[in-house]
Amino acid sequence: MMKVRMIEQRDNGVCLFELKNDEIKVITSNLGCHVLSVFTKDREGNFGDVVLGFENVEDCWHGDGSYMGAIAGRVANRIGDAKFELNGKTYELAANNGKNSLHGGIKGFNQKIFKYKLLEDGIRFIYLSPDMEEGYPGNLYLKVVYRLCDNTLKMEYEAVSDQDTLINITNHSYFNLSAGKDKIYHHQLKVKADEIACVDENCLANGTFLKIENTPFDFKEFHEIGERINDDHEQLKLAGGYDHSFMVKDEEDQLILYDKETGRKLTMTTTLPCIQVYTGNFLSGGCNGKGGKPYENRDGVALEAQFLPNSIHIEKEPKVILRKGEEYEAVTTYRFEVE
Ligand code: GAL
To answer: Which of 12, 23, 106, 209 is the most exposed place for a label (fewest CB within 10 A)?
Structure first.
C-alpha cells in the first residue's frame, strides 16, 4: 500500500515528507529535495536505512560540503575556472571549490526551498531559479519528482528556461547498503562503461578519457570497491579514491551495487550519459549525520547520474546547454532487491 504524507512543517518553510510502500520508505524534504533516509529490506526482511543523511536538513545552509542526498544544480560537479562562454558572452560564477565552481555555486539548488505537491505515488518539487542566480542566465523552471513503484525509487527531472542557459541536475545521495554497519570497502560494484572521464589535481574533468580495461576502474565485472582503491594509479591518487564519471552505455541497469553481508542490491538505470562514482573521499569533518554521528571518509558511495562534468569546456556540442524554450528531461531509477 502506497502512502505519501507530510510528517513535519517548520516555521522556516522546511517540510519533511514520507513516501512509503511495502518495499521502501523514503524521507525527503522540500529543502534542496534532500533524500534524508531510504529504508529497504535486507535478506532477512529487516528494514535498514541505506543512505547517508543530515540529522537536521538545515545544516546544508551552514557550509557543509557533502551535498548528502541533495539535488545539485543548476550545474552539478565542476565548471573549470568558474566561468563559461555562451552565445559569445562570458558568464562569471563564484569559485566555491578552489578556482572552480562546484554544484551550482555558493547557494546552489541544494539550499533552496522548493514548492511541493503530494502525488498518489510520490512528490513533486518545483523551483523557479531567477535569471542570473549564481551567475547563470535565464529564468529556469525546474521540476523534480520522486516516485515509488514497488521496489524502485524513480527520480524525474524537467526544466525549461526563457534564455539559453546551462543545466545538469543530479541527486547526490551516498549509499551504504549495510545500513551503516560497515564502510563501503566490501560493497561490490559493477558498471556498464568502457571509459571514465579523467580529472586533474582539483578533481576537475580535464577533457581526457581513460579506457578502463586492465585498470582499477574496470568494473565490467563485480569488484569490491576497496579491492583496488589504494592502487598506485595516477587517477586514484589525484582524486584520493574514486571520484570519476563513468561513461555509461545507453542501456538499462547500468550500475549495480551489492552488499553480500545483507544481500541488498541496488540497480541504477539512467537516461543520462554519465554516472559519477564518488567514494566519499572528503566526508570526514563535515556535518553530523543521523543520530548526531559524524560521518567519515568512505562511509558511503555517491552515485550521481549526470551529463559529463565540465561539459561546457570539454564537449564540442555541450550537452549541458539548454536552449530557450527547449525541454530538459532526465530520469534515473534506483531498484532495491535482495540476493
Ligand atoms: C561530488 C564530487 C566530489 C565532491 C563531492 C562533494 O559530486 O565529485 O569531488 O566535491 O561531490 O563533497
So the answer is: 12
Q: Cα–Cα distance between 218 and 195 in angstroms, integer?
A: 9
- Dist. CA 34 → ligand 1 center (Å): 16
Ligand 1 pocket test, candidate residues 102, 206, 298, 304, most atoms within 8 A of CB = 102
Distance CA 22, CA 284 (A): 34
Of 60, 77, 175, 283, which is best to mutate to test ligand 1, by the most ligand atoms within 8 angstroms of its C-beta? 77
Q: Is the pTM of this model over 0.85?
A: yes
What mean pLDDT is reported for the chain? 97
Residue 284 above 90 pLDDT?
Answer: yes
| Segment (H or E) for 237 | helix 234-239
Q: Break the chain into its structural domains and give their ranges.
A: 3-338
> What is the topology classification, in CATH, of domain 3-338?
Beta-galactosidase; Chain A, domain 5 (2.70.98)
